[in-house]
Amino acid sequence: MQNDVIIAGFGGQGVMLIGKMLAYAGMNQGKEVSWLPSYGPEMRGGTSNCTVVISDKPVASPVIQSPRALLAMNLPSLDKFEPRVKPGGLILINSSLIKRDAVRTDVRVLKVPANDVANELDNPKGANMVALGAYVGATRAVDVAEMEALIRKTFAAKPKLIDRNIEAFHRGYAIGEAGVK
Amino acid sequence: MAKKLMKGAEAIGEAAIRAGCRLFFGYPITPQNEIPEYLSHRLPQVGGTFVQAESEVAASNMLYGAAGTGERVFTSSSSPGISLMQEAISYMAGSQLPVVIVNIMRAGPGLGGILPAQGDYLQSTKGGGHGDYRLLVLAPNSVQEAADLVIEAFDLADYYRNPVLVVGDGLIGQMMEPVEFKDDYAPVRPLPPKTWASTGHTGGEKPRSIINSLFLDPEVLEKHNQALQAKYAEMEKNEIRYEGYGLDGDYDVLIVAYGTVARVCQTAMEELEADGVRVAMIRPISLYPYPSQAVREAAEKASGVLVVELSAGQMIEDVRLALEGRRPIHFHGRTGGMLATPEEIVDKVRRIVEGRGGKS
User: Which of B165, B214, B236, B248 is deepest in the core (most CB within 10 A)?
Assistant: First the structure.
């Protein structure tokens, strides 16, 4: 059993962070994981992305050409990676910022208004947590309890953010869970 | 120690510390900057010294000087920086100094780019500097293996009194994977005392230790070369490392790949096997000494061999030497920082099986 995902957005959306959190959570529950960042030259406002693999056995290729899932936080990311998603895979679209539909018809598409939900919760920087929740809710790639523990750990230095980010994660989780039923 | 998620570059830095290295000399270059960054704060914590030199030329000569005292010393760089160090590397090989060098390879030639490549294979294994010398060259395929091999590299350097080079592509430096460091660390083999180290004449009690690669008398220099060659022969006997994948079964195509590329090939193999294509792989871990015999024996069970590299074809030369024409050799390579994908490798293997693989 393997879950892999390309998480992409523009710099500052926290895509690298939620990728690392997924990898940590996977590792903490005994899975094999890898986190591969894009580190090539990018212009300001361009896309940054990472590839996360969570597997029951040692991760073979950490480079995933055709991911089982794409989490697109902005339009350039959807444009770039949509064609690469594995047929039957999953595309999560941050519909707060991406105003087009997916072109692909051979994948499951889940719209997640990550920024709108985060704003609603008065936690505008928590859009990435909503998106992370939606991915976990839709794929069950890692355990919720593990992710909650990790959010506590990640934001230990900023205690005010812990409950708000857990809340954002759960709102996303509910969207992810409902979306694949 | 529990498993920790670490960037390859940081794991390499921590490994050097675990191996007892307390001296680092280097100069920054992407994609390995996290190694010096990590050591710049970790070394002072353990009583060590981190020096950012004014250039790679300076760093590598500082390495020479510090190694002469018998201390465990380390530098890391990426391709263009390693090129600048070649003069000192030849001198260190000639002076029989134990040093560990990590090259996180990026795409070349020249300044090239910052993305992963394996274009320094020939430089690493065939002598990037002048003269008849060899480095022990190790190539990890994961963050854990990178950490393990760096620790081992310090022992091997001390054991052979020879520079050891650990090469990874940019992925090894940049990706994060779980790493576990053992709490207790024992040398991989008994290490001789460093009687050769230049640690002080102590008023004439101890003979002067001269660290030198200059031998103007040709008879003396030839003897020195013969001693070096005897050492390399011992490395060839003792230090061959590789991992086989499916070599015990029957297969039509043998893949030869090293480093992270071998993991991409593993994913391709899973897909091919699911489709009934019989494929196996051998992954050299020691690039020098090269596992020639193992590659030859594995290749003899196949009808064709596929070499996959992030280069225009460098290790393939060692595969050709190993096979001596016994089997057709095919090649798939990407350059410029482009990565080989499982899909490309699946396609290439299928074409080989169908007799459309093209010769190398």
Answer: B165
